[in-house]
Amino acid sequence: SDAYKQAEAVKKRLDEEVAARAAIETALTARNYDALSAAIDRMVSMGGMDDEPLLAQGQALKEELEAQAEATKSLVAAVEARTIDGVSAAIAHAVKVGLGGDVPELVAAQAVEARMRAEAAMEASLAALESTEDVSALEGALGEAGAMDPPLLATLPDSAPFAAAQRRLDQLKTWAEIRAELASAKKAGGLSALASALSHAADSGLPECKELAEAKKKMDKMGEQAKILNALSDAVRGGDIAAIEAALTAAEAKKLGGE
Questions:
Q1: How far is CA 18 from CA 11, 112, 151, in A?
Q2: Cα atoms in the Cβ-side hemisphere of radius 13 Å centred on 229
Q3: Distance separating alpha carbons of residues 119 and 115, to the nearest angstrom
Q4: Longest dimension (CA), the chain
Q5: Worst-scoring range by mean pLDDT, 13-17, 172-176, 237-241?
Q6: Mean pLDDT of 102-123
Q7: Is 121 left (phi over 0), alpha (psi -120 to 50) or beta?
Q8: How far apart are alpha carbons 123 and 130 in whole angstroms?
Q9: What would the pLDDT profile of 46-77 be if each residue is shown by its tens digit?
Q10: CA 124, CA 129: separation in Å to the nearest integer?
């Protein structure tokens, strides 16, 4: 009869609605995007269920999962681009859309952010020492950069502050060696050694210092002495008594007698 058929149709519809609700509930619990999309499409295609609370919940979760999927892609892209602002922004957006703290892409991005902040702090410390005279401070900072896990240069092989600090350390060590060379040459009194030490100082750009000033003074004195002695030798060879006497007077004035 028509009543029987109508009852069967109503029962079938009610069974379909129950099944549709169950499908959405299962997908909501599992937070499974594909299953949720299919369940939503099924309920919408049935018609007459637009006011169903589970449908609204399902659509809201679907939007949330889509936003989280996009946030995950953004995290991967930001990590690949490796800029602190980009990574930080991607992390902030991921947290905002509710991405779980155990999501591998978020964990990786947070690790990269922490590493980049540590790199920036290390480079700032190195940059601050670019003009220092403190060898120990430079050695300490460069040592800290090398002791990072992984070392600074492992992730920033072209770090300009690290290279500048290393150049400064090498320069200070070179200058220390040259100052020692100048002091030694001055004490020894050899013209050749003194000239060589002064040449090294000039080539290295050694700034004015006690050792350099004393070496220059010694060099000037030795040059003047050599000039007087040469004049005396020339006078002796020429047999010019007046010239000899003048040269002897100059030599005595410089306390060169007996040399």
A1: 10, 47, 60
A2: 11
A3: 6
A4: 158
A5: 237-241
A6: 97
A7: alpha
A8: 11
A9: 887 878 899 999 999 999 999 999 999 999 99
A10: 9
To 10 degrees, the CA torsion angle through 220, 222, 224, 228? 180
Question: Angle 84-96/53-81 helices, nearest 10 degrees?
Answer: 170
DSSP-derived secondary structure for 60-73: HHHHHHHHHHHHHH
Q: What is the pTM of this model?
A: 0.71
Tokens 């800290």 belong to 144
Of the candidates 106, 101, 102, 104, the residue with the CA atom closest to the CA atom of residue 90 = 106
CB 174 within 8 A of CB 204: yes
Q: How many residues does this entry show for the chain?
A: 259
CB neighbourhood size of 250 (10 A): 17
Q: Tokens 């003048």 correspond to what residue?
A: 246
Tokens at residue 26, please? Answer: 């299962």
Type of residue at 110: Q
* Cα 101 to Cα 105: distance, rounded to the nearest angstrom: 9
**Surface-to-core class of residue 245, CB atoms within 10 Å of its CB (0-12 exposed, 13-18 middle, 19+ buried):** exposed
Burial (Cβ within 10 Å: 0-12, 13-18, ≥19) of residue 166: middle
Residue 216: burial class (beta carbons within 10 Å; 0-12, 13-18, 19+): middle
Q: From CA 192, how far away is CA 146, in angstroms rounded?
A: 42
